[in-house]
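Q: Make up one entry.
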Amino acid sequence: MNDINLDLVENPVIKAFIQDQTKFPENFKLNICQDDEMYLFSLNNVKDDRDRALVRYYSIGRRILDTVKQVVEWHFGSFENVPSFLDFACGYGRFTRFLVQEMPPERIWVSDIYANAVKFQTEYLGVSGIVSTGKPENYLIDRKFDCILANSFFSHMPERTFTSWLQNLYNLLTANGILMFSVHDECLRAPHVEMPANGILFSANSESQSLDKEEYGTTYVTEKFVRECVERVSGGKAFVHRIKKGICRFQDLYVVTNKLVRDFSELKFTHHPEGYIDVAAFTNKENLYLEGWVADVNLDGRVEELQVVVNGEVVQRCEPFYDRPDVAGYFQTDGALQSGWRCYLPKNTVALEDVLIVKAINKYGLEWILESCTVKSLVNQRQSQSLLGSTQTKLKLLETQLASAKIEWEQSQSKLMITQTKLEETQTELVLAQTQLEQTQNQLVSVQTQLEKTENQLINLQQELEQAKCRVLAMESSKFWKIRSAWFQVRRSLGLAGE
């Protein structure tokens, strides 16, 4: 049996992790095959830090178990009620080593195209093995299974084999069985890449170093495509349920069954919390200072507490208590705003060679390992980042504040421009009003002048009238006027008078 890490039993970091994170630590199968691509992938991601690669490898296996367990308990009640389980595209047992702690290995079958992977698991984990094939039509199995998991398999299949493999696995289900498989949703593709109209996008790229990338690449699908595939392979009989980012908050998990023992609404799926340690450093008083963030993305979820475990003993508990706008922005939810935490470990409680586990626990009991390593390793890794991490956080806060101030400034500028426009309009109206006022005043002066002229003319007329009256009175009092009046009176009496 080709395996590596035979000294893991004596590795204090791995020993502490297994003790803390497995159901039966004394029986946990921790050896890893030297050809295990998932371990090698983890090792490459942490720049050949062996302990961290191992912790990441086991942590992902544990998280997948937590996911599968929720679906199994919804449908079967518990793993104890699952007569048979097929781990399809199983690899070298990253998940199966946790599964054998939940149900007897004689009820578990594993299947993979790597014959060496199947051999490793059957010999080391005691499960039954089925070597898979490159072509779905050649995969001939003479039995059925109550629970089938195809994790991170359909996320690599091109269109020509996607439906065929789904048909194969569906046909292997018992009448009351469930099929679980994961996919890359279309939202994970590069933003500049257009999704084909048929709902499946394939590219010849993958982490596998040996499989033909034209047959095993990277695939993105729409929910509509998946549901139509299930409809087609089941002849319309199957029920299907999508759990968004159900696998490690990345791939979507689909659950397919022919018989709904319980309604999908009763499947209350919850995600793990997440977190990170930004700063780990010793203070001048030789206390260990830790700072970071933890967040829970579940609806109405929250992180109950953050635990610091030293050599298997919980030495510190704390909760997130200050705002981290950068975390809230990353998760795109205000629920992750109050996610910042910090704590001190007195120098007499921790030493450089001690094994430290820092983990977050949400209200559903799911755990996230922020770190599992020696104190020395953590401090050395973060030492160059301690000030940088704090500075970056402050910089991000300042950037957020600057962006907010910029928005406020732009809003103020906009209001100022509106006010200036209104002021200019008011000034224009005022100029017009002043012009009209001047014109009115000029007209008033002209009218007043005319009025004065008219008044003078009226006075003159009145004077002339008075003078005329005086002349008339003078004439009427004269002898001539009296004789004239008598003369006209005689003529009227004789009927000869005219006007």
About this structure: The chain has a mean pLDDT of 89.
